[in-house]
Design goal:
Elements (H helix, E strand, L loop, with lengths): L27 H6 L5 H17 L2 H6 L21 H6 L34 E5 L8 H17 L6 E4 L5 H9 L3 E2 L40 E5 L4 H10 L3 H4 L2 E6 L1 H7 L2 H7 L1 H6 L4 E4 L7 H4 L2 E5 L2 H5 L3 H5 L26
Parallel strand pairs: 1-2, 1-4, 2-3, 4-5
Antiparallel strand pairs: 5-7, 6-7
Length: 348
């Protein structure tokens, strides 16, 4: 039973068939034919995913701020002025104690707070790429629930978080707006003086270049968290290229596929040819893996928090910064990004 406060309501248990992690919800195809799940249904499933992350202890281990009961204490919400604040507050509450018998391998001090231990300023805004159909896919829903907890932990207002994925349905987009988040509708590929997105009644989010599925987004001097779980290697490479200077890279925090894992899995010649900016930054990046948990092996596997200390970047050879050619991937046989003009048709 859920608490009545903060928009939570008691619910009756429902019988569900067992399914593999990441598999789409049962009966969702029929719901799509009838207009899709309602926005409230999407939000309810998201609240359930949030509860799972808390009760399992996975979030507490990721955040790394544990109290006497073994669970993190929630941060204050504050008023960020977003139209969806009330709904987002309903997603927050007292952390549950870790489930008995849960096996965790927590990183020291918590992965999501590791970048804040140094002199770098904390992120003031967030950009999320490639989340996917969170209304249908449990893995995507857990990733979104984790992002909302992360925004609260880092005190980034919902209105300062922009998301882009051409796969979002209309009802998923409505749920994101109900949470006060910013939706980007363009798959822009070039850097510019600012990016504009739409949340609520279409207010603009000021900042750097328009975020895109191609990832060519300059931070323009603002400390920015990029949430890119299980995105293609080219997306990370494009993001690095768009911020290829010590000053700009030191403003980035990236949560996504492990750069060390990419290095281990690719032949050196392929890494240097197709993803040269990942290859060149390996000596200037710090990374801490998210904890391992049996319930979320498919959802957050190979996921790390990356940041770029200015002192490490300044120790790299000057020649590293001289080559700034835009990545084109002409010889890449397995390009894992959606280019502008290749977006799928919008879904209801």
């Amino acid at each position: 039973m859920a608490a009545a406060a903060g928009g939570w309501r008691a619910g009756r248990a429902r019988r569900r068939r067992r399914r593999r992690r990441g598999e789409e919800e049962e009966g969702e195809d029929e719901e799509e034919e009838e207009g899709g799940p309602t926005t409230e249904a999407v939000l309810r499933r998201l609240r359930e995913a949030r509860d799972d992350l808390l009760s399992s202890g996975f979030w507490a281990a990721s955040a790394g701020e544990c109290g006497d009961n073994g669970a993190s204490e929630p941060r204050g919400c504050g008023d960020n002025g977003a139209s969806g604040d009330n709904e987002l507050r309903g997603m927050r509450g007292q952390w549950d104690q870790r489930a008995p018998g849960t096996a965790l391998t927590p990183p020291p001090a918590g992965a999501v707070r590791a970048p804040l231990r140094g002199p770098a300023e904390p992120p003031a805004r967030c950009v999320c790429y490639g989340l996917g159909r969170f209304g249908r896919c449990p893995a995507a829903r857990y990733q979104l629930a984790f992002l909302l907890l992360l925004l609260d932990e880092l005190r980034v207002p919902a209105a300062r978080c922009a998301l882009f994925d051409p796969a979002f349905s209309a009802r998923e987009a409505a749920a994101l707006r109900a949470l006060g988040l910013c939706l980007l509708t363009e798959n822009e590929v070039r850097r510019g003086p600012g990016f504009a997105g739409h949340r609520g009644h279409g207010s603009a989010v000021t900042g750097s270049a328009v975020p895109a599925q191609e990832g060519k987004h300059g931070v323009d001097g603002a400390a920015t968290l990029f949430y890119m779980v299980h995105c293609g290697k080219a997306l990370y490479n494009n993001l690095l290229w768009s911020n290829w200077s010590p000053a700009a890279l030191s403003k980035l925090v990236i949560i996504g596929n492990s750069f060390r894992g990419i290095e281990e899995r690719l032949l050196s010649r392929i890494l240097e040819r197709d993803y040269s900016y990942i290859a060149k930054v390996l000596k200037g990046v710090e990374e801490v893996a998210l904890p391992s948990h049996p319930r979320y092996l498919d959802t957050f596997n190979d996921t790390s928090v990356h940041w770029f200390p200015l002192d490490k970047l300044q120790q790299l050879s000057p020649e590293v910064w001289d080559f700034v050619e835009e990545p084109m991937y002409q010889d890449c046989e397995d390009l894992e990004i959606i280019r502008k003009g290749e977006e799928p048709a919008a879904k209801s």
